[in-house]
Design brief:
Helices cover about 10% and strands about 60% of the residues. The protein has about 160 residues and is mostly beta strands. The protein has a single domain, classed as Porin, CATH 2.40.160.20. An eight-stranded antiparallel β-barrel has the order 1-2-3-4-5-6-7-8. A hairpin with a 4-residue loop joins strand 7 and strand 8. The longest helix has 15 residues. The radius of gyration is 17 Å and the shape is globular.
């Protein structure tokens, strides 16, 4: 029954993401019709914790990958995840977007000690220019854990873009 609820929620988000909301003069904003790459750091219970690479395609789509690893003498902790972002409103200094992502967390020595290590997240986010090529993103995602737990959780990231 819980899987039906998850699929219903994902379907609603997927159908609503096809609607286009734009601001006037969006097509005139400088630099929006070119691909941009960014490197930074991301913290998300849904899509990972660690070094982040983001690529804004020359469209309304962005892709982000996150990877983090810490190894001590007897334990390994890692996270691996990815995000799809679809711009709802995009300007030169800000953008608001739909987020869909997946992630996997591992912590242990030989076996994973994390309950619900696989995650799927859906939600909305915003990105804000702080200074020149440095941007901060925040988001709110419904995070679906592999142990059937669902939590609304925040995420944050910071990226430096190479224009």
């Amino acid at each position: 029954m819980r899987i039906v609820s998850v699929l219903t929620i994902l379907s609603v988000f997927a159908l609503s993401s096809s609607a286009q909301v734009t601001t006037s003069g969006l097509s005139n904003a400088k630099g929006l019709n070119q691909g941009v790459q960014g490197l930074g750091f991301a913290i998300s219970a849904a899509t990972g914790l660690g070094v982040s690479y983001r690529y804004h395609l020359p469209s309304k789509t962005s892709l982000q990958g996150v990877f983090g690893i810490i190894k001590t003498s007897d334990k390994l902790a890692l996270s691996l995840g990815g995000e799809y972002q679809y711009d709802l409103v995009r300007g030169v200094d800000t953008r608001f977007f739909f987020i869909g992502g997946i992630g996997y967390y591992y912590n242990g020595s030989g076996k994973n000690d994390i309950i619900g290590p696989s995650r799927i997240g859906v939600g909305i986010g915003g990105e804000f220019k702080i200074h020149e090529a440095f941007h901060i993103s925040v988001g709110a995602l419904y995070t679906f854990y592999s142990d059937s737990q669902v939590l609304p959780l925040p995420q944050i990231s910071a990226h430096y873009y190479f224009f």
